[in-house]
Amino acid sequence: MKLKTTTLAERPELQGAMWQMLDTWPTFMLKDPVGWLLIGRIVAELPEYVLVTTDENDEVVARAFSVPFALKKDGRGELPPGGWDQILLWAFSDLRHGVAPDTVSAIEITVATGLQGQGISGRVLAALRENARARGFGEVVAPVRPSAKHREADASIEEYAYRTREDGLPHDPWLRVHARAGGVIEAVAPASMTVSGSLAQWREWTGLPFDTDGPVEVPGALVPVHCEARRGYAVYVEPNVWVRHAL
Predict the structure, then answer these.
(1) Residue 111 sits in which domain range?
(2) Spatial separation of the C-alpha atoms in residues 199 and 111, rounded to whole Å
(3) What span, in angstroms and rounded, lies between the C-alpha atoms of 161 and 149?
(4) Strand locations in 72-202, DSSP E?
């Protein structure tokens, strides 16, 4: 497939098609309040860090969001256990206060529904790395959402993240793409994203009853959702895996 990847700053007319691109994200994943608040701001305020991939018909087939932030700032230094949410908060705090960034973090790489498994994600990851390099950065980090972890919701993320195949590459397909691109697994972000809601909201998002206290396995969730049926709410705390890419 012939693909072309550009920044949204270069092709702002693709914004509508980018948002309208069909994807496979579970509904509950769109309810994280940090993401809900800040994803749109990446597009509005950092379009040079948003990548849009089109095919030979100029149809959008993938998108990627990233953000620059100051990892080496006093009080930071380590990739945070708060993962995805924390990076977004750091990035927009730095932007607001004029703090010079020293690192780029991937935020999302999404391939259109029906086009997975064709190597598109790896090509977009390469473009994201190149975009960061072209802007003078020496490193990209990524709070990676392992693509097959949802099939083993009860498995430890620490064990899963470092599980390998006989060839030494990661067991997980998306982690494997990062490894082939030169990424190195550094740590686990045990609380990378938090989604909470009432039982009625979780029933709407998932179609499940949410009527019993305890863990609930939800399609697409990397770990079980904790349900407090007697108190009327449920909480999902998603783990991710920190991967570093030297450029």
Answers:
(1) 4-190+241-246
(2) 31
(3) 9
(4) 103-111, 139-144, 184-198
Q: What is the CATH number of the domain that holds 171?
A: 3.40.630.30
Strands (E), the chain: 4-7, 50-54, 60-69, 103-111, 139-144, 184-198, 214-216, 225-228, 233-246
pTM for the full predicted model: 0.96
Task: Indicate whether 117 belongs to any domain.
Answer: yes
Binned at pLDDT 50, 70 and 90, residue 1 comes out as confident
- For residue 5 the two structure tokens come to 């990847």
**Within-domain flag for 167:** yes
Tens of pLDDT, residue by residue over 189-198, are 999 999 999 9
Q: What is the pLDDT of residue 15?
A: 98
Task: Give a yes or no: residue 65 inside a domain.
Answer: yes
CA-based nearest residue to 206, from 35, 14, 29: 29
40 inside domain: yes
Amino acid letter for position 163? R
Pairing of strands 233-246, 184-198: antiparallel
Q: How much is the pLDDT for 113?
A: 97
Q: Is 37 left (phi over 0), alpha (psi -120 to 50) or beta?
A: alpha
- The domain total for the chain is 1
Residue at token pair 């989604």: 195
Q: What are the distances in angstroms from CA 233 to CA 26, 197, 211, 228?
A: 19, 6, 10, 5
